[in-house]
Amino acid sequence: MKLGKVILAGIIVGVLNAVWGFLTCGKFFNWVYALEPTFVWKTIEEIPFVLANISGMIFAILLALVYALVHKGLPGTGIIKGLCFGLFVWLVGTLPGVFSLALFSRINQTVIIYWIISGLIVNLWQGLVLAAIYK
């Protein structure tokens, strides 16, 4: 495992995550966050963007590190390996977390469904990007 490759992969995934978030949450699907109850969301002024971007980059580098550690054990080759990784991350990370939110919070069910679908899409393309870097 090469640390430089892990960091590069993490930075690429982190930047793509930020772009995805801007396009989906900030532009095309921002209507989802207007569904009641709206009191759960912070206003744009309350969001610590520097902290959000730094933590997003750290989590992306950690995701790349996990891929570097497990990629040889993933089924398939090339992009199939990346898709499997993305699916596994969604199954054990995104899906349980969002499901828990649905059980224990008052967040609108449409938001929950949106997060489940969006999480699957994000995890799959993250896996593809990481597989492309680690080919």
Q: Runs with pLDDT <50, length 5+?
A: none
- Output mean pLDDT: 88
The tally of domains stands at 1
Question: What share of residues are in beta strands?
Answer: under 5%
Structural class: mainly alpha
Largest sheet features: none
Radius of gyration, CA atoms, in whole angstroms: 16 Å
Number of helices: 4
Distance between the termini: 13 Å
Question: In oligomeric terms, what are we looking at?
Answer: single chain
Instruction: Output the helix-strand order.
Output: HHHH
Shape: globular
Relative helix content: over 70%
Number of DSSP-assigned strands: 0
Question: Could you walk me through the main structural features you see in this protein, from its secondary elements to its overall organization?
Answer:
By secondary structure, the chain is an all-alpha fold. It has one domain (3-133). It is built from four helices and no strands. The protein has helices at 3-28, 49-70, 79-104, 109-133.
Give a summary of the structure in a few sentences:
With 135 residues, the protein is mostly helical. It has one domain.
Features:
4 helices, 135 residues, mainly alpha, globular, single chain
SSE arrangement:
Layout (H helix, E strand, L loop, with lengths): L2 H26 L20 H22 L8 H26 L4 H25 L2
Helix pairs in contact: 1-2, 1-4, 3-4
